[in-house]
Design a protein that fits this description.
This protein is of the alpha/beta class. It is built from 17 helices and 13 strands. The protein is globular. Bound molecules: uridine-diphosphate-N-acetylglucosamine. This is UDP-N-acetylglucosamine--N-acetylmuramyl-(pentapeptide) pyrophosphoryl-undecaprenol N-acetylglucosamine transferase.
């Protein structure tokens, strides 16, 4: 039996011994939904060590690797993607949603959950539907500057909405009452941001260790090319061209680390071998499990503008060249990118203009200008991303409280 802990921000009410906090988190598809879900899970466990946390996801996404690897059970639902389903298969969506919602309800009941949280991705809306079917409170966290259809739908089913970026408020039903908590990011990244801002000596030591771990040649500036959790072929190709260009110039003051995604690794390595056989100028890896090391070691990051990446860059303050994915629903990556470009912490490069030549033209003057790089780092506004996991966890715990305003009239109504 759980003893009511002495809670900072103590917001659960205790009149009698009760079951442990049990929360089901719906998150899936790509890293941008799963890592924030995992950061929330960790924050819940920090606040209530005996909390029972489970995830719902699908068989198709990165969650099948990342969630069990982090030590949490994953229950899979049969759900089709919201956006692709709209087209000719639009008529399949209500039935798919109800079926997946019923599966989520079974998980919620099985786990004796008190709250469901939708973090975005395929499984997010079913988690919220499942909570409605079970008469439980739910909360939606919107991570993008422009919400996707799944979360716009889910936000109509619950009055509890939290935002990563304030600018998405106007797109959501109930958005006016939403709280901007920031994007939950992993504890090592939040810590890296704090160290970078408050302890230059410690950060310099960390940076040296990270550069060693990533095999960055001594004295070279590191350009990290990180497409997003799945990689981005356009960026990988441009980065290989850039490496070839710098290698031809015999430059030993720059090094490119290319995160390709697993599917593109062998092709990228073959192309790199043709221009830089001994990996002096560039190295390709499939995935980086330690993004904290990668950010700490980098002088510039070239990346897509997924919301988690944008929030992490704002937190750690690494200057960025952002190449928004042009087919993201609602062009949300371009809006995400603005978070950094409007601060002066990032430069925008349209996807169609991205090549080895355009990257060289952008990066060469930038890397040669340490004051400009430092100004970009200084301009990055960390906002509340470093604290977002704890802020969101406090909201979730408040909803789980027996006397909390969880049984909102909207949650009592049937969704049918
Ligand atoms: C193509 C597409 O539709 N992408 C969407 C997807 O992005 P996607 O999941 O690719 O990208 P994000 O940038 O949001 O998140 C990537 C996450 O994976 C981590 N990471 C990445 C690479 C790596 O090697 N190791 C690693 O740990 C990053 O640190 C970050 O935490 O979900 C995001 C959140 O809704 C959206 O904003 C993006 O538009």
């Amino acid at each position: 039996m759980r003893t009511p802990p002495d809670r900072p921000g103590g917001d659960r009410h205790h009149t009698a011994p009760q079951e442990p906090l049990s929360v089901v988190i719906g998150a899936g598809g790509t890293g941008g939904h799963i890592y924030p879900g995992l950061a929330l899970a960790e924050a819940l466990r920090r606040a209530e060590p005996d909390a029972v946390i489970s995830f719902v996801g699908t068989e198709r996404g990165l969650e099948t690797r990342l969630v069990p690897q982090a030590g949490y059970p994953l229950h899979t639902l049969d759900m089709i993607p919201f956006d692709r389903a709209l087209g000719a298969r639009r008529y399949l969506l209500p039935a798919a949603l109800l079926r997946a919602g019923a599966q989520a309800r079974a998980v919620l009941r099985d786990q004796r959950a008190q709250v469901a949280v939708g973090m975005g991705g395929y499984a997010s809306a079913p988690a919220v539907v499942g909570a409605r079917l079970a008469g439980l409170p739910s909360l939606v966290h919107e991570s993008n500057a422009v919400p996707g259809r799944a979360n716009r739908f889910a936000a109509r089913l619950t009055p509890h909405v939290a935002l990563a970026f304030d600018r998405s408020r106007t797109h959501l039903s109930g958005g006016a009452d939403a709280e901007t908590v920031g994007m939950p990011i992993a504890a090592p990244l939040a810590q890296l941001g704090r160290t970078a801002r408050t302890d230059p000596g410690a950060f310099a030591r960390l940076r040296e260790r990270a550069r060693g771990a990533l095999r960055v040649p001594p004295g070279a500036r590191l350009v990290l090319v990180a497409g997003g959790s799945l990689g981005a072929d356009r960026l990988t190709r441009a980065a290989v061209e850039l490496a070839g260009h710098w290698r031809a110039q015999r430059r030993d003051d720059v090094h490119v680390l290319i995160k390709t995604g697993p599917a593109a690794l062998s092709g990228a390595r073959a192309r790199l071998a043709a221009v830089d056989g001994d990996e002096r100028t560039a190295r390709a890896v499939a995935y980086l499990d330690r993004m904290d090391l990668a950010y700490a070691a980098s002088d510039v990051v070239i990346c897509r503008a997924g919301s988690a990446t944008v929030a992490e860059l704002a937190t750690v303050g690494v200057p960025a060249v952002l190449v928004p994915y042009p087919h993201a629903p609602g062009d949300h990556q371009r809006h995400n990118a603005r978070v950094l470009t409007e601060q002066g912490a990032g430069l925008l490069l349209p996807d169609a203009d991205t090549s080895g030549d355009s990257l060289a033209a952008l990066l060469e003057p930038l890397l040669a200008d340490p004051r400009r790089l430092a100004a970009m780092t200084g301009a990055a506004d960390p906002g509340t991303h470093g604290a977002a996991a704890d802020l969101l966890a406090a909201r979730v715990r408040a909803l789980a409280a027996p006397t909390a305003p969880s049984r909102h009239p909207r949650e009592e109504r049937s969704i049918a």
